[in-house]
Amino acid sequence: MKQWPSPRRRATYNPGWFTRTVFNPTVAWLTRAGFSVWGSRELRVRGRTSGEWRTTPVNLLGHDGERYLVAPRGHTQWVKNLRVAGEGELRVGHHTEAFRAEEVADDDKVEILRAYLKRWKLEVGVLLRRRERDVARRRAPPDRP
Fold first, then answer.
1. Which H/E stretch holds residue 96?
2. pTM
3. What angle, rounded to 10 degrees, do the helices at 106-119 and 121-139 form?
């Protein structure tokens, strides 16, 4: 029996205990109650296998007249679900806005990530620095004796 090589795994950075059990639930509750915390929204997207609605708090970035969803934690479940579904909903309180998603080309991501970091540096700065460090490690030439 042949074993096929597994696809290259993309990095995902899981939230710490405080973020997972205190911060995200608090922001999600405030957003559902109608209070947007620095652009927070509740993202609703259908699960890629179950088809059931999945929700998570996200920060909606307005930049150069466009709006972007950025995944500072990498290729998370909501990113995978949104890629498959291609559409979702953003909610604040009782206001729900349906949208269609288009993935941004790699060349255009740097400017958007800089704008996102400038806006939410305290919240996600550590994650983005970890991602940059990991990318730098992959690009570093091997040590020579």
1. strand 95-100
2. 0.70
3. 140
